[in-house]
Amino acid sequence: MASVLVKSSSNLPVLLVFSLVLLCLPPGGGQKKKENLLSEKVEQMMEWSSRRSVIRMNGDKFRRFVKAPPRNYSVIVMFTALQPQRQCSVCRQANEEYQVLANSWRYSSAFSNKLFFTVVDYDEGADVFQQLNMNSAPTFMHFPAKGKPKRADTFDLQRIGFASEQLAKWIADRTDVQIRVFRPPNYSGTIALALLVSLVGGLLYLRRNNLEFIYNKTGWAMAALCVVFAMTSGQMWNHIRGPPYAHKNPQNGQVSYIHGSSQAQFVAESHIILLLNAAITMGMVLLNEAATSKGDVGKRRIICLVGLGLVVFFFSFLLSIFRSKYHGYPYSFLIK
């Protein structure tokens, strides 16, 4: 018992000194350090953003400024593969739209330190791709100011497309930050329209003494068919949604021209559908020609067989594409 008392009395000065040190420390030292760290991160992000609308990040920067707390700002990250050897044309197209959106935010009157746009290239941050189990590019993710990203914080690029306006709407839903997209002026459409009007005007002037071709039913029918093919193949959807031309798998390099979902499509897919519809229509025209013409019977038989072959084969091809997009569709014809 005596030994315990002696030992306790010998530790008393140490305890007193330790207590005095704790009393001398400023209150909330850890909180102040956290605030200083947050201030440094925000200041650094603002400095980078002042130089470039989209901040390039490697693995270390991503973990420090995007993943690690403290953070009171939201970060939009585009995971991409822009190096030429990756041959990702979709990445380049998506990057152009992303730059337009980031510039619109950077030079708007509402710009603040509450939202930043960043990019992680695979060749500069492969470890980030591995950490997030990400095997495709481009991918857009939102990292909120508080908490971890949820499922809705990953942009559904395959279904919506990557147009700046669609990205801005998604960001508004996730952050309540409204971004009005300002695109640089593009006069190519105006120039093309002026050239077309000039061409038509010049043609009418040259043929001013013989304008019977204006009443040509075949010409107007061909023009109407071109419009119908363009609309039924999804060209208007492409114009609104801005989908990629095709998709290249970064793992095996395989290029997909047909989207696997019924909710989206590629530009190449609409071109394929346009050609298939045109081929089927040509077959129907040939069948009608064979039935209504009064020429040689043998020639009419050949025209009939060619028309029937066009309709059967290309309709089967069109139906197989429909089956690949609407999974579970039970019907097929010749081609599965």
TrEMBL record:
The family note in this entry says: Belongs to the OST3/OST6 family.
For the biological process aspect of GO, one term held by this record is: magnesium ion transport
**Membrane-spanning regions, if any?**
187-206, 218-237, 272-290, 302-322
Q: Name one Pfam family in it.
A: OST3_OST6
> Signal peptide span per the entry?
1-30
The name under which this protein is listed is Tumor suppressor candidate 3
Per its UniProt record, what Gene3D superfamilies does this chain match? Glutaredoxin
For this record, an example GO cellular component is: oligosaccharyltransferase complex
Q: Which CDD domains match?
A: TRX_family (cd02947)
Ranges in coiled-coil conformation = none
The superkingdom listed in its UniProt entry is Eukaryota
Q: How does it sit in the membrane?
A: Multi-pass membrane protein
The pathway it acts in is: Protein modification; protein glycosylation
Listed SUPFAM superfamilies: Thioredoxin-like
Subcellular localization is given as: Endoplasmic reticulum membrane
- Keyword Endoplasmic reticulum in record: yes
Q: Which keywords label this protein?
A: Disulfide bond, Endoplasmic reticulum, Magnesium, Membrane, Signal, Transmembrane, Transmembrane helix, Transport
Signal is among the record's keywords: yes
